[in-house]
User: Which sequence fits this backbone?
């Protein structure tokens, strides 16, 4: 298993955080975006879209697109699920991860929604989903914090303690 | 979870709703449908926003009231809950590969058509991006979308020259999104060029499946 990535690429970072959270031992292969290595014939052979990251399996199968790489890793190594363990959890996390990705600028609203969902789950003792949503939120916050600061959004602040 | 305990809020004319309807038909799941009247702005009503705060269709509501929005999330829910006739793959590798190709068809094909339509149609002035916020149209994006769709058709034709279906050897959710894209592109008067033989052959094949009428 090998992850082609760039240390400066936020999309690569999304996968690196997932790998660290799941405690997986995966070799990292840096792609030099500064030298435009992603457009080389060698790299295009594994990712025709010429973007990082790409996850390559032992048999040479190449998986591109961050949510697809996350899906593969979470299904192949289900011990610490970050995309959910039941159909309902998988659907909810797919929905929120996608909204965080497509609408990242509206983060504070999302954070508040996720916080309310987490409160509801605490009550219903769905601790596992809560932890997964907490992970999704933390990774999004890490990824989008600057954008969020630059786009104050008209909604209540997430209560303090949310990120603990 | 059984199909008849679910509810799909959709619109008969919405291409995103159609992606889910084709998916349901392929899996032979009889999920009750509830039509949302987009012409009357019903998607922005308080009742609908309570289940989908983004104010968009489709939404799948489970028996316990849990609302699942976003087409790939709805497909994920259905394929995991009803694993017969998997359309998102049965193994980790297939799940990864189909997620990749379905996303490729959506971001490079479907989203490109959507961008063109939403920035062009007079009825969507001030609503250039679906969802809770208003955005003005940018006319220059209409031409760029046409170019993106043209490139998508060429890339898809090349892909289908190598494999039978978008994600490889079997019909999958990636074919559903690609089919919905080709039909949606007609709204921009963009059609598959006659010399794209592999794409035309694939289109004829997937369009002749009963699910295409959903």
Assistant:
């Amino acid at each position: 298993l090998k992850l082609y990535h760039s240390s400066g690429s936020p999309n690569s970072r999304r996968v690196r955080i997932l790998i660290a959270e799941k405690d997986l031992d995966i070799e990292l292969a840096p792609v030099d975006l500064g030298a435009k290595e992603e457009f080389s014939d060698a790299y295009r052979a594994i990712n025709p879209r010429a973007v990082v990251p790409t996850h390559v399996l032992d048999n040479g199968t190449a998986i591109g697109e961050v949510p697809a790489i996350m899906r593969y890793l979470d299904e192949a190594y289900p011990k610490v699920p970050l995309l959910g363990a039941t159909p309902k959890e998988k659907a909810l996390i797919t929905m929120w991860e996608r909204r965080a990705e497509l609408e990242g600028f509206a983060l504070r609203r999302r954070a508040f929604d996720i916080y309310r969902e987490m409160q509801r789950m605490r009550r219903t003792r769905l601790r596992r989903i809560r932890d997964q949503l907490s992970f999704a939120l933390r990774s999004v916050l890490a990824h989008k914090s600057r954008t969020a600061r630059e786009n104050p959004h008209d909604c209540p602040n997430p209560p303090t303690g949310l990120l603990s | 979870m059984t199909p008849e305990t679910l509810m799909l809020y959709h619109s008969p004319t919405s291409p995103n709703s159609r992606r889910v309807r084709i998916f349901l038909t392929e899996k032979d799941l009889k999920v009750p449908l509830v039509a949302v009247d987009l012409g009357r702005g019903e998607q922005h009503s308080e009742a609908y926003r309570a289940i989908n705060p983004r104010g968009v269709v489709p939404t799948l509501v489970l028996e316990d009231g849990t609302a699942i929005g976003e087409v790939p999330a709805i497909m994920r829910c259905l394929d995991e809950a009803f694993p017969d006739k998997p359309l998102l793959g049965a193994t980790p590798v297939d799940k990864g590969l189909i997620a990749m190709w379905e996303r490729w068809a959506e971001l490079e094909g479907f989203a490109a058509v959507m961008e063109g339509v939403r920035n062009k149609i007079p009825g969507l002035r001030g609503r250039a991006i679906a969802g809770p916020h208003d955005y003005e149209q940018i006319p220059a994006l209409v031409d760029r979308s046409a170019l993106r769709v043209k490139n998508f058709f060429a890339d898809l034709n090349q892909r289908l020259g190598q494999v039978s279906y978008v994600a490889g050897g079997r019909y999958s959710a990636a074919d559903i999104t690609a089919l919905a894209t080709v039909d949606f592109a007609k709204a921009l008067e963009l059609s598959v060029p006659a010399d794209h033989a592999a794409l035309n052959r694939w289109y004829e094949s997937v369009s002749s499946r009963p699910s295409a009428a959903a």
